[in-house]
Design brief:
427 residues, 5-stranded antiparallel β-sheet, 5-stranded mixed β-sheet, 14 strands
């Protein structure tokens, strides 16, 4: 089974489990609600029957109860109204003779009556009965509860339909959520797989060159100059290998440490940018590139970040511009600060970034051109710094005709122990 099929199967399993939980909960709630509603309706019937009997009987007001007994025995009120439907009234004599007191009353089943309400089936219909003593017999009141059974049946059908709809919606919703939730995980897994493959390729290339040079040097006796050339190539590839490993280690550390550490430090971006330009001046001179620094603002270019993070960011941007700018070209580093924002911009007169590569420039090991040099990790490192310092990117074509990489941060308060860039001077 493919990984995508496994992902879908896992989402189906999760959705099925969620639906089963909802189904069990719905059944329990439905049973409880049915029991409560039926009990409420039956209590209403019992209350009506009790009131009905109270209306048609009166207490016996004789000289008193027989010795050993307490209370009075009610008897029938002869002027009572027995036609109060839907309740029926019967009189049961002491010898069991049943006399209907309500017109249309069904036949009363033979039963040992007492004062507790009960449900009995009469002619295929459920009746609820209540009884009180009347003389030597009983006065029985009854009411059909078939309506309650019908309501319960209709409620059950409605609950089944609503429950089925709820389960369908739950399954579909859970499946959709499961697929959506697993999509980022699958994307991360795919990117990790691509990153591993790219890293393996980048590390294998210098190792292959080093291995080939060593084998060639050992294959037969050579002149000292040849050995020197081989060792120089080995040294170059070793430096490249070390650069890749250092960048990977920096990214691994930055992914976990930078967000929590940056919030506690304040950096003057203008000062750092000026230092970065000074540091890369020899590189630019060697490549016959004009490297300049421009500052404009109110003299408060402070942001919350680590000094080494901003230094690394500036180094990556300036190095990239110098690397891809032809001799005779120009690279400009500019810092602007306003009342609320600080912006670092690096423009160059190089070929720029193709539009179809802009969205991938921060991917690790991605290169917009086939020009040799670099590890493909520089802009990934820069992006890590920008994200960890809550900055925002602007990537496009600048006024020099090449790539324009700009980062903007929210202005940070000036530390009491620091001076602004304008106070110490600048170009």
């Amino acid at each position: 089974m493919t990984r995508q099929g496994t992902q879908r199967l896992h989402a189906v399993k999760v959705a099925t489990a969620a639906t089963a939980v909802v189904a069990v909960t719905a059944v329990i709630l439905a049973v409880a609600l049915n029991l409560v509603e039926v009990h409420r309706l039956v209590q209403g019937v019992d209350s009506r029957l009790s009131e009905r009997l109270a209306d048609v009987v009166k207490p016996d007001v004789g000289p008193g109860p027989p010795p050993g007994e307490s209370g009075s025995i009610p008897s029938l009120q002869h002027d009572a109204d027995f036609s109060d439907a839907p309740s029926f009234v019967w009189q049961v004599s002491g010898v069991g003779v049943v006399t209907p007191m309500t017109t249309g009353a069904p036949n009363l089943p033979v039963h040992q009556w007492d004062t507790s309400p009960l449900t009995v089936t009469v002619n295929g219909s459920s009746f609820r009965f209540d009884a009180v003593r009347s003389g030597s017999g009983w006065l029985v009141a009854g009411e059909s509860v078939s309506q309650i059974d019908r309501i319960r049946g209709e409620g059950l059908i409605a609950e089944v339909l609503l429950g089925a709809l709820l389960l369908v919606v739950t399954f579909a919703g859970s499946l959709l959520v499961g697929l959506r939730a697993s999509a980022p995980i699958e994307q991360i897994r795919r990117r990790q797989s691509e990153f591993t493959a790219d890293a393996s390729h980048e590390l294998r290339t210098p190792l292959s060159v080093i291995e080939a040079e060593v084998e060639l040097a050992l294959s037969r006796p050579r002149e000292a100059a040849d050995y020197r050339d081989s060792l120089c190539r080995v040294s170059t590839e070793s430096a490249r290998l070390r650069s890749i490993v250092n960048d990977l280690l920096w990214l691994a550390r930055a992914d976990g440490d930078l967000p929590s550490r940056d919030a506690d430090e304040t950096v003057n971006v203008a000062t750092m940018a000026k230092s970065g330009v000074d540091r890369f001046a020899p590189v630019a001179d060697a490549a016959k590139i004009s490297l300049s620094f421009v500052y404009s603002g109110i003299g408060r270019s402070f942001v919350r970040a680590q000094p080494d993070s901003i230094e690394r960011l500036i180094g990556v941007l300036v190095d990239n511009s110098c690397r891809y700018t032809e001799p005779g070209g120009e690279v400009e580093v500019r810092v602007e600060d306003t009342e609320h924002r600080v912006t670092l911009t690096v423009d160059d007169s190089g070929p720029g970034i193709p539009e179809d590569h802009v969205e991938f420039v921060f991917d690790r090991f991605h290169r917009a051109t086939g020009r040799p040099g670099g590890t493909g990790l520089g802009l990934a490192i820069a992006d890590t710094v920008v994200r960890s310092t809550n900055g925002s990117w602007s990537v496009g074509r600048g006024h020099l005709g090449g790539a324009r990489m700009a980062v903007s941060w929210r202005h940070a308060p000036v530390p009491t122990s620091e001076t602004s860039f304008g106070d110490v001077g600048g170009d």
